[in-house]
Design a protein that fits this description.
The structure is a homodimer of 385-residue chains.
Chain A (H helix, E strand, L loop, with lengths): L4 E8 L10 H14 L10 E5 L10 H8 L7 E5 L4 H14 L5 E8 L6 H9 L14 H16 L3 H15 L13 H5 L3 E3 L2 E2 L9 E9 H7 L4 E10 L14 H14 L8 E3 L5 H10 L8 H6 L16 H5 L3 H16 L13 E8 L4 E8 L2
Parallel strand pairs in A: 2-3, 2-4, 9-10
Antiparallel strand pairs in A: 1-7, 1-8, 4-7, 5-6, 8-11, 10-11
Helix pairs in contact in A: 1-2, 3-13, 6-10
Chain lengths: 385, 385
């Protein structure tokens, strides 16, 4: 069903442990793949939105450097950031710039280069997304936050470590088929269970890993979309919400309130419900997160997320296939590119370009993208003609 | 003349050398002043946009922490950054979110707390907004960049150091009347000329100084604006453009090309020209910048900016009064709040709230806000009923 704004091009660099190239070069890979899939030329891009989290590489204010490198000088550009959901906030802004009539074609460029830092340095920076006065100095890193969520879910619903591990097993099966994923090994339940503890109950293979990568989404107004692609993917719903930046301020730890709210808004805007979604990408930064996401999105009732997985309903052949690109757990998590990567995967599903992991007759897809431990959430609903 | 989106509230903390409070508290001061000037309550704010440059204080991704502190939890929020023009890019996005129909009321919150760093640490970070591979490691700090611009302008047009100093003298006269400015001393030509060299030909009093501060702009759709204020200030024109992030890539140094382009777009959108502007705020990060800005905005022909100043045409009684709030040179420059501070001053001029510095019958005002040494530029044209 036609809407006002479409995604007309998507491109992605491989997601890598270490890219060995500059941030401009990294974005170039994704940008030209995105452009090449359309009838657009570089000069047709009216503006760019650069989405990345801060302090992972030396370049401050990367919008200037990247738009320069992509030969988008003169065109408006700026940086947008909402942690791991940076490129979903970029999509929201790109949609608005077009719908408001300021631009016809906008490139949303998400990237992160994390390999300049050690894991400890990256973890310290991630922690400082939480309140630096009241929480992050006391050790509330991301694995610690999500381990608390896992404990709460276990306490409330009896979820087990083995059940969490099943998320990784599922996603690794599909990740092995994704030639842009950083981690393409199929893992077994035993391997997940026996992997090194990170923050109990989460083990190494329950956690996604840092990565370098870039994704570009090209958005266009309806008229331009009709001219430049045969397969426009329309933006049906955009939901966004925020939660307390300090975990001490949350009402519950077995659900992420801003995800429920963002989903509600996105479904309302699209005039659709969870039962209408043919395929989804959800933010599996940790195995527990995917289970909670099923429940927050209404794919399962509270406490029934594990059952949905164990019934194989989120596998390719199930009623709501989830993370058929391998998820963050397989792809790796280049923060600013992650949301764009999820959106790209749903666009490719709706264009029916996914080969072995293609959901038959997929018409409506959903993307759920968290920023931090539920500080931000963006839910996007997309549809084909 | 009524338009689709209005600024209905403005608030500003004092700009200070050292605020001694948290970033949440700093924004709170501006936020409540902005709300108090309208019939809006906290619950009426649909979304917030947090605008600040990065790495000046410890808090990463401040949108979560600040929206939490302002009791805007649950509402969408994210961070926007374009160096010194961060809050002007926030205004552009806020306008778009409302015009696109996603929100009715948006708070654009610009802030910076720079006092946690020494001047040298702040200068190093500012440098890293230039390309960290090709330019910033070789010492291209902001004073160095603008000293080059000054040298080029002197070479091309015969501009002198004394003439540059006259910008500071003018702005200090008005800054002395601004009770929220960090620097309220009227300075003489001799004091400017004799101040300590920074990068020749720029001396200490040719340069604006770092500051702590916050500004909040509340935007609303036409219908809401009509309900919540008697003095809506309408957004007539929004121009944005970018320039090469490396100065080596510029075509000229006596003009800032993205400013000319942003001005052209803003005038086109508003259906107005430089001759229609009753009052302006321009980005006087250094004295030379204000002279170049006159020329880039079409207030004077190239090379005739100094004459405009010496003819006192940019004084309160002149044909195009500029920086009647004292400019960055008097107010101080809390990066992410600076553009918002300029916009607030024009809103107050158009509402006729400026007392001794009020431009009589001001109907149309313009804001020119640079990011870095012309990496970004945003030009905004505002008008009253």
């Amino acid at each position: 069903m036609e809407k006002d704004v479409a995604i007309v091009g998507v491109g992605q660099s491989p997601f890598m442990r270490k890219c060995g190239i500059s941030i401009g070069e990294l974005c170039f890979l994704a940008y030209h793949e995105a452009l090449d899939g359309t009838h657009l030329k570089n000069k047709d891009i009216d503006a760019s939105i650069i989405c990345s989290a801060t302090e992972y590489d030396k370049q401050r204010s990367p919008a200037g450097v990247i738009s320069d490198y992509l030969d988008l000088r003169k065109k408006p550009t700026f940086c947008v950031e909402s942690l791991c959901s940076s490129s979903s906030s970029g999509l929201r802004i790109g949609y608005s710039l077009i719908k408001a009539g300021l631009h016809d074609v906008v490139a949303v460029i998400g990237f992160q280069k994390m390999s300049e830092l050690t894991s400890a340095e990256a973890a310290e920076r991630m922690g400082r997304s939480g309140d630096v006065m009241w929480e992050s100095p006391f050790g509330m890193t991301m694995p610690a936050a999500f381990a608390m969520f896992a404990r709460a879910h276990m306490t409330e619903y009896g979820t087990t470590e083995e059940q969490l591990a099943k998320v990784r097993v599922k996603n690794s099966i599909y990740g092995a088929l994704n030639d842009k994923a950083a981690f393409r090994k199929v893992v077994t339940l035993e391997e997940v269970i026996n992997s090194r503890p990170v923050v109990t109950p989460l083990k190494m293979l329950d956690c996604c890993a840092n990565a370098d990568g870039a994704v570009v989404l090209i958005l266009a107004s309806r008229d331009v979309a009709r001219r430049v692609t045969d397969k426009p993917i329309w933006i049906h719903g955009l939901g966004a919400s925020s939660g307390s930046a300090t975990l001490a301020g949350r009402e519950t730890y077995s659900s992420i309130s801003c995800a429920r709210e963002a989903a509600r808004i996105a479904y309302d805007m699209a005039g659709l419900g969870p039962e209408d979604i043919d395929v989804a990408e959800v933010h599996d930064c940790f195995t527990i997160t995917e289970i909670i996401n099923y429940e927050d999105l209404g794919f399962a009732k509270p406490g029934e997320g594990v059952k949905l997985l164990e019934d194989r309903e989120t596998y390719l052949e199930g009623k709501i296939p989830v993370n058929l690109d391998g998820g963050l757990l397989s792809k790796g998590h280049p923060i600013g590119a992650t949301g764009g990567g999820q959106i790209r995967s749903i666009v490719r599903q709706l264009r029916r370009e996914c080969g072995e992991t293609q959901v038959k007759n997929a018409k409506i897809g959903l993307v759920h993208n968290l920023g931090g431990p539920g500080v931000y959430c963006f839910v996007t609903i997309l549809g084909r003609d």
